[in-house]
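Researcher: Hi, I'm a grad student and pretty new to this. My advisor asked me to get structures for two proteins we've been looking at. I'm not sure of the right format, so I'll just paste the first sequence and hope you can take it from there.
Model: That works fine. Here's the first sequence with its structure tokens right after it:
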Amino acid sequence: MLTYLSVMRKKSALNIFYPKGCKEIESIYHAFIKVYGKELSYQINLKPIENLKSFNRNSVSVKPFKVNHRELSDDGKNSSLVPSLGFKFIYDSKSICYGGDTAYCESLVKHAKNSDLAIIEAGAEDESTTDLHMIILQATEIGRTARDYFLVHVPE
């Protein structure tokens, strides 16, 4: 997407909101700037989110919430928690809950409930597959608490 915006000659700055301490976002940003920085037609501003207070952008209310994103440890057996957020967006009394890259967590359950649309990752087929992602059954159960939903990152 970042290169596409430059190809389309975007001029206004792009703000990327991310959880403070998320090294993945910072690493991707720095690698991208190193390769494409001189060609960019726009400025990228990293905006770390330090608290979970709602904020507004234009007429959209944004509510960040913590999710359970995990990465495999160096030993390949254990996992560790990585700073990650889901978001609930509200515009003109319509709401979208985006869970992001997460395993099962109560904060996603809470924010998906009664949303007009819930976008939920279902990256594992069953519990034995991984603790890094939600299984399809869990994601579907959470999705059904919203008015509508769809699953992303579904195993083939």
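Researcher: Oh nice, that was easy. Here's the second one.
Model: And its structure:
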Amino acid sequence: MSVQPIVDVLKKITTLHDNLLSISKKKTESLTKNNIDYLQELLLQERKYVQAINQLETKRMELVENWAHVNGLDSQAITVSVMIDDDLVGTDKQALESVTTRLAETLVELRQQEQLNQQLTKQSMQFIQLTMDMISPSLTTMNYGNQANKQQATQQVKRSLFDSKA
């Protein structure tokens, strides 16, 4: 059995991850411009891509298991990396290695972009919290309480030892 179906599925997965990377960059722009409506649209698109990736990943796993079974290998222990390192030679090895390297590079870039988005989101939340704290008064700064008690306390401190009226 040829590894070409596995390579084809991995190419599709890489393409979907490239699209996710593009969406992630748009999310960064949306976060910096505070465009929440567009951000929500991007999140919906992202969810669709993730579902498609999950389906292709399941298909890839089935193809790898079938390839292992046809080649008399343990289908539970086989991975694409093991295939590249131990079992393939020639153009099959080069094609599979090329597509997995490209996928890994895309995943690293996507992870970095998503970390940036996470930091931007966290900063936005901190800014919102700071703004809310500044707008809403705290109980300790409010002048609630019995004003008479406060005046009596200050008068008692100001009273001298000698009563001048006596």
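Researcher: Is there anything I should tell my advisor about the second?
Model: You could mention this: The mean pLDDT is 84.
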